[in-house]
Design brief:
heterodimer; A: 174 residues; alpha/beta; Aconitase, domain 4; B: 428 residues; Aconitase, domain 3; 2 domains; 5-stranded parallel sheet; 16 helices; globular; binds iron/sulfur cluster
């Protein structure tokens, strides 16, 4: 199982689409690794610097409808090869969300207030999180503040994360 | 309590409900193209699982970048080609016989009411026009589909959208779906199936229904479904006449998959399109929609007519009607990509290709082409396109480019004028 722990990148916008996560022109690549340098390359967002801000991050916090658009699993892969195994958002596009769990990664939806709270922390300075799947909680550390956020995850999604994804599960069961 | 078509299709295909919160469905079709399938094939090979559940239920096409533009896309084609051969996938469409997936697969008669279909492509929802549950998926789901013939979905709720009224001249299915997305927004139907009903949908041809269903995903929907009726049966008749005694018998069978009158919907909406004007998008989201009249005068560098949304014969006819006897503005690059070889041939026979060429359009082979900015027709930084496609995302047709989505009629009129224009001016 992947480790869900590390520095948070906040992307303060709704509807960030898969073309912004990984532009279509890189879909000619057939290796996941090739996505690495191009994560969020075409995202234009005030205050976001693609050269600097992706360094050492392990999680993304964002707003509504993250991952809308194309079905490309290249989007989760671009995150995966950069060590980002968890995205927390107010909501997700269906295919992106399913792709994340299918790859054994986490797409966690949280209520608006909690997303706001996370954005407040990000404003103050570097924030870090750690996800505990067993208790379904996220521990957040920001400056001298620590707090815990509960989240919900279905048994099915949890199983996918624990077993490393849908392919192995499906091949074993169907 | 009545059921929706989506519920009925799910029930008829249910294999398992692991943990009670997800449905594993048996698949009738797995569609494949050369951009998302090669990674799936490579991964299956690497895992020692290079198998297919049923070669007759898998259909594959090279459509996104064809002819190959470089070594990388050539390799993608090669991987798909060899895989199809290796597994005896007979319905594989390669150059000379290939066309845009969501146009060619219906045209070949591969879709039926009540079917479950997945593909590694978000616009798979197009096939919902036939009363099927068709959904785009990522690579892992595609791999499982190829290997096991199953896919997992949460039972989607249904959003019933009634389209009623009488369309004015110059207003098309594309304008209707843009209006739907404008009203419900880009995530208005997330995790839901949209069921399109109403007199306007009932009167639509299959080409028009496919335009409608195609863009359901731009409102976040899993699938966009039109209920099967005689129009559906008539379209399918050449493919099903061995299976049924009469079209009526086929319809009776297919309406097993029709929503009950007392079906329960999560949401409903009625849109009267009688006053609807031609629409276009103005920003980087498909719900940034305005009347063409408000965007009139916007300069465009390129006009693209084609794609799985609007590259079918009826679309070409409408555009050619606007273009007949005219020249497009010298400052505009006009590109038209008939979506399939059959559509190309019909357009040739009907004289449409000549009209496009005389007007100054470049006619390409059937392909996704300019639609996704990774093949031909890529925009330069700062350029603007008018397109009959389905996505206006920032960078979609080339980094720094802007795409305005519109109907084929509006796109053709815009090409003539060199700026966004209503087609009213051109058609009597
Ligand atoms: S025409 Fe465009 S939207 Fe349709 S399948 Fe091809 S690339 Fe995708």
């Amino acid at each position: 199982m992947k480790k869900f722990k590390g520095k948070i990148l906040c992307l303060d916008r709704s509807d960030i689409n898969t073309d912004e996560i990984i532009p279509a022109k890189y879909l000619t690549e057939i290796e996941k690794r090739a996505m690495g340098p191009h994560l969020l390359e075409d995202l234009t967002l005030e205050g976001f610097d693609v050269q600097k801000d992706l360094k050492d991050i392990a999680a993304i916090v964002t707003r509504e409808n993250f991952g809308c658009g194309s079905s490309r699993e290249h989007a989760p892969w671009a995150l995966e090869v950069n060590g980002v195994f968890v995205v927390i958002a107010q909501s997700f596009a269906r295919i992106f969300r399913q792709n994340m769990f299918n790859c054994g990664m986490l797409a966690i939806a949280l209520p608006k207030e909690q997303i706001e709270h996370l954005f407040e922390c990000c404003k103050i300075g570097d924030s870090f999180l750690s996800v505990d799947l067993e208790t379904a909680t996220i521990q957040v550390t920001s400056q001298d503040k620590h707090f815990t956020l509960p989240f919900t995850i279905s048994e099915f999604d949890k199983t996918l994360v624990e077993t490393g994804g849908w392919l192995e599960y499906a091949d074993a069961n169907y | 309590m009545g059921k929706t078509i989506a519920q009925k299709i799910f029930e008829a295909h249910l294999v398992d409900e692991p943990f009670g919160d997800v449905c594993v469905l048996k698949l009738d079709r797995v569609f494949c193209h050369e951009i998302t399938t090669p990674t799936a094939i490579q991964d299956l090979v690497a895992r020692g699982k290079d198998r297919v559940f049923d070669p007759d239920k898998i259909k594959a096409v090279i459509d996104h970048v064809t002819p190959a533009k470089d070594s990388k896309t050539a390799l993608q084609g090669k991987i798909l080609r060899q895989w199809a051969k290796r597994h005896g996938i007979k319905d594989f469409f390669d150059i000379g016989n290939n066309g845009v997936c969501h146009a060619i697969f219906p045209e070949k008669g591969f879709v039926r009411p009540g079917f479950t279909i997945i593909m590694g492509d978000s616009h798979t929802c197009t096939h919902g026009a036939f009363g099927a549950f068709a959904a785009g998926v990522g690579t892992t789901d595609l791999e499982v589909g190829i290997l096991k013939g199953v896919a997992s979905f949460k039972l989607p709720e249904t959003f019933k959208i009634e389209i009623k009224g009488t369309l004015q001249a110059g207003v098309y299915a594309k304008d209707i779906i843009l209006e739907v997305i404008r009203q419900i927004s880009v995530d208005g139907a997330t995790n839901m199936v949209i069921e399109f009903v109403g007199n306007v949908v009932a009167e639509m041809t299959m080409d028009q229904r496919m335009t409608l269903s195609n863009m359901a995903v731009e409102a976040g929907a899993t699938s966009g479904i039109c209920l099967p009726d005689m129009t559906t049966v008539t379209y399918l008749w050449p493919f099903i006449q061995q299976e049924y005694e009469s079209p009526e018998a086929a319809l009776a069978d297919y309406t097993r998959f029709s929503s009950d009158a007392d079906a329960v919907y999560a949401k409903t909406k009625t849109i009267d399109v009688s006053q609807l004007e031609p629409l276009t998008t103005f920003g980087y989201k498909p719900d940034n929609v305005r009347p063409v009249s408000q965007m009139a005068g916007t300069h465009v560098d390129q006009v693209y007519i084609g794609s799985c949304t609007n590259g079918r014969i009826e679309d070409l006819r409408v555009a050619a009607q606007v273009l007949k006897g005219k020249k497009i503005k010298a400052t505009v690059r006009g590109i038209v990509s008939p979506a399939t070889p059959k559509i190309f041939s019909m357009a040739l026979e009907e004289g449409l290709i000549k009209i496009f060429m005389d007007a100054g359009f470049c006619v390409t082979n059937p392909t996704c082409g300019a639609c996704l900015g990774m093949s031909n027709g890529v925009l330069a930084d700062g350029e603007v396109a008018a397109a009959t496609t389905n996505r206006n995302f920032n960078g979609r047709m080339g980094r720094g480019g802007m795409v305005h989505l519109m109907s084929p009629a509006t796109a053709a009129a815009t090409a003539v004028q060199g700026e966004i224009t209503n087609s009213y001016l051109f058609v009597n």
